[in-house]
Amino acid sequence: MYAAPREIREAGVIRTDVVPGRQRLILIGVAAIITVLIAVFAVGRGLASDTGGGTSAAAGPTSSPPSGSGAAEVISDFAFSPETITVKVGSAVTWTNHDPFAHSVKSADGTFVSQDLEQGQTFTATFKTAGTFAYICGIHNSMTGTVVVQG
Ligand SMILES: [Cu+2]
Fold first, then answer.
1. Distance CA 75, CA 85 (A)
2. What's the whole-model pTM score?
C-alpha cells in the first residue's frame, strides 16, 4: 500500500529531471521531423514499386504491339468492343476475352481464326491488306464485329 505512491512520485521526479522543458520541445521536434522523413521515404518507395509493378505487368502477359501499329479489342458481356475497329495496313489487332466464358474470333472469309479464348486470353491478328473484314465469335454466332483496314 505504501509502495505505490512512492513509485508515482519517483516517476514524476524522473520525468522532470531527465527531460526538462527545452529538451522536451527539441525531442518532440526531432521526432516529428524523423516521422515526416520516414513517411516521405515510405510513400516514395510505395510509388516507385507501384510504377515498376504496373510497367512490368503491362509488358508481361502479352507482347502488346506499339500503340502506333496495334489496336485493342475487348470481348465483354458477349460483345466485341468496339464493334467496328479501323486500323492501317500492317496493324495488329489484339482481342482480349474479359468474360468468364470462352469466346473466339472467326473471320467470315477464314483469313483469321482464333482458338477458343478463355477469360484473360488474347488473340492477335495482323492485317497486311486493305479491306473490310467481318468476323463473329465461333461459339456464339450472334456476336459480330468488323475490322476495317485502310491502306
Ligand atoms: Cu462468344
1. 13
2. 0.56
